[in-house]
Design a protein that fits this description.
Elements: H1 2-42, H2 47-63, H3 70-86, H4 91-111, H5 116-132, H6 136-149, H7 156-165, H8 170-182
Helix pairs in contact: 1-2, 2-3, 3-4, 3-5, 4-5, 5-6, 6-7
Length: 183
């Protein structure tokens, strides 16, 4: 009788826990949609909304690593940090969010190494280094790491092309393009 009561209590506790996680994921999705829709539709960045989402997504991925939504939410947190870094009004805020994005993409690869987006973390870090921090050497390192680890991947030729463009100004890239058209 006691064993049956414990089994029912555990089952009910498990169901309540699952309901709590479902509510948390629904709330997290809504938080992301709010922050992202303002950015995507209006071009307006709600810093507080993005920061709230990033904090919650990181906590969710850590608390529920086996949940199917955890990888996507963590990846979006990294992208959100990139958005905040790119739009930062101060160098300090830019650097803080860029470093947070780099840390999130590293965490993603450690936590979800087999997920499709794990490969894309190299690209995202390269973008952070090149476009946000102006660190071409680190961006180059990210591209080369990807190319060396995944030589037959469909993104490898794209990243090889990016390597030829690193550190060049828009006018230099335009000149290269014009030269290639005329040759």
């Amino acid at each position: 009788m006691v064993a049956a009561a414990l089994l029912v209590a555990c089952h009910n506790g498990n169901r309540a826990g699952q309901q709590s996680v479902r509510q948390e994921t629904a709330s997290l999705k809504a938080s992301y949609q709010h922050a992202d829709s303002l950015y995507a539709v209006c071009g307006r960045i709600d810093t507080a909304a993005f920061n709230e989402f990033i904090t919650r997504a990181m906590a969710f991925a850590e608390a529920h690593p086996d949940d199917t939504l955890a990888p996507g939410m963590l990846y979006r947190a990294g992208v959100g940090s990139m958005i905040l870094a790119k739009s930062a009004e101060t160098a300090e805020y830019r650097a803080t969010n860029a470093k947070r994005a780099l840390a999130i993409f590293n965490q993603f690869q450690e936590q979800f190494p087999e997920h499709d987006n794990a490969k894309l973390c190299y690209w995202q870090r390269a973008i952070v280094y090149d476009d946000i921090l102006g660190d071409c050497r680190s961006a180059e390192s990210e591209y080369r790491d990807f190319i060396n680890r995944f030589p037959n991947d469909s993104l490898t030729p794209v990243f090889e092309q990016y390597l030829t463009l690193l550190g060049k100004s828009e006018s230099e890239i335009s000149s290269m393009y014009i030269e290639n058209v005329h040759n």
